[in-house]
Amino acid sequence: MVKKSNSLKQLALQKFKKNFWGVFCFIYIVIVGLISVFAYALAPDNSQYANQMHLAIHSKKPGFTVKVLTLPSELKTNQSLIDKLFFGKINANTEVPISSYKIENDTLRYTEYSSDGLTGNEKLLSLNVFPKNTAEAFITTKKFILGTDKYGRDLLSRVLVGARISFFIGFVAVFISLIIGVFMGSIAGYFGGKIDAAIMWIINVTWSIPTLLLVIAITLALGKGFWQVFIAVGLTMWVEVARVVRGQIISVKEMQYVTAAKALGYSHFRIITKHILPNIMAPVIVISAANFASAILIESGLSFLGIGAQPPMSSWGAMIKDHYNYIILGKPYLAIIPGLCIMSLVMAFMLIGNALRDALDVKN
């Protein structure tokens, strides 16, 4: 007869596996994480920040197809394969959308693409600018699955690359909040007295300031940028973690295993890190999942206000800011698509937080 493990970890894992929405959201979050890491390998436009602009084809509907002429540049770019994979390709070539072309002797005659039924400019180009005079090899047909934005950039590529900021800000912000929150909460709950009163005063003052206002103040102090937003969001989320950790430590520090550890002469650091924290991490894990969702929403709000990730960096919040006017101009999908991405990712973290809460509840 095989004896089943009755450890709390095994029981929690078994309960989590039975939660359909928890498992579904976990798989979804893993997929989004992989997309954010390998965004440039998946995006049709693998240039840096997916920022290849074609103003002639701006705001085109999903499924739009056009011929594109690539004019090779003499500027050489030295990029490693890893750099291209994770940070995008430095594109020195010029891309021109065209409606038609014809090769006559040593000349390429092409007509630039023009929307609204207008006829574009007709231009002549010597075949000598192309390696081995192979002009047709530099003319490709591009299909924009989700259409193009108001600058003529591929919307699908911008969405994929924008997932990186929204996803990683959750990790960085939660990591920062856990370090500060667990440290402050542990000291306040374990030692109590004046130390607890001082830390609780700091927590209450920080908590009384509106989160978005505090993030804006920190962002303005650190400057606008990618990492500044990550740090600013993380520095505003530690108070919730600290209060939870403090409350949990107060409730367990008088238990027998803590008293036994003190009697054996263990240091305060060892008692907190080796004996108390491992036994109170369940609610901290749950609140971290909720903080993931909060960090994504805060970053989106900052990008919408223009103080988050700066152009040309792709961000879901910035995409909504650029295109919310198109909701009343007959092309609402330009703002709805990144909005749905934010909503689905936030919902996934909230549902997985609920699933973790149920799985880690020892009373059920």
From TrEMBL:
TM helices/strands, residue ranges: 20-43, 165-191, 198-220, 226-245, 276-298, 333-356
A GO cellular-component term linked to this record: plasma membrane
GO annotation terms (biological process): transmembrane transport
Keyword annotations: Cell membrane, Membrane, Transmembrane, Transmembrane helix, Transport
Domain ABC transmembrane type-1 stretches: 163-353
Pfam families linked to this entry: BPD_transp_1
Topology term for the membrane: Multi-pass membrane protein
Location(s), subcellular: Cell membrane
Keyword Membrane among UniProt keywords: yes
UniProt record similarity statement: Belongs to the binding-protein-dependent transport system permease family.
Record PANTHER family: D,D-DIPEPTIDE TRANSPORT SYSTEM PERMEASE PROTEIN DDPC-RELATED, OLIGOPEPTIDE TRANSPORT SYSTEM PERMEASE PROTEIN APPC
Protein name, per record: ABC transporter permease
